[in-house]
Amino acid sequence: MTTNLLGFDSKTQRTVLNNLKKIKEISQRDNRDDDFTMYFTESKMGLMFLVSKNRKPESWDRLDRHCRLKMYQMRFEEWILITVYVDKGGMRSLDFKIYNRKWEYDSDMEIQLDKFKALKMEKFKKTGLKIGRNIPCPCGSGLKYKKCCGK
Q1: Which CATH class, in words, describes the domain spanning 2-104?
Q2: What is the pLDDT of residue 112?
Q3: Over the stretch 51-77, which tens digit does the pLDDT of each residue have?
Q4: Residue ranges of the chain with pLDDT lower than 70?
């Protein structure tokens, strides 16, 4: 229903619903939050789905900061966060937030973004995997490593 409201074509709707099903299963199996994000570069929009059992206000604040940072990182002007809460009985409820803001340089956001990228890279390096030049950058920018942190 949510994908229909967003006006996605049928292929994108299937992708969203399949990914939502996957992260719900992973979240239930691992007993932790899980998410996926889609980028729509032509319309400068990001969409993030989160499946969670935690409905605490501090979690929402953390998510809010993350979405603002990703929106800034991607230089998008719109970001949609949809959170699916699943209680112990399997009942689901949705929360959402829509961010609209014209992108402009912000030195504070740049500092936060550098810290975020460094944390992501450190986490990736701990896996022991080699970073290939043509793979998506582990920092989460959506760019190839060679055009992002590999410069």
Answers
A1: alpha beta
A2: 95
A3: 888 777 778 888 999 999 999 999 999
A4: 1-6
Q: Break the chain into its structural domains and give their ranges.
A: 2-104, 107-151
Residue in 2, 63, 70, 68 with CA at minimum distance from that of residue 38: 70
C-alpha to C-alpha distance for 24 and 26, rounded to whole angstroms: 6
Enter the tokens of residue 8.
């996605």
The bridge status of strand 45-52 relative to strand 78-86 is: parallel
DSSP character string of the chain? -HHHHTT--HHHHHHHHHHHHHHHHHHHHHTS-EEEEEEETTTTEEEEEEEES---HHHHHHHHHHHHHHHHHHT-SEEEEEEEEE-TTS-EEEEEEEEE------HHHHHHHHHHHHHHHHHHHHTT----TTSBPTTSSSSBGGGTTT-
Query: Which one, of 96, 93, 108, lies nearest residue 63 by Cα?
Result: 96
Q: Are 148 and 139 in contact (CB under 8 A)?
A: yes
Alpha-carbon span 53 to 46, nearest angstrom: 23
Do residues 113 and 105 make contact, with C-beta atoms less than 8 angstroms apart? no
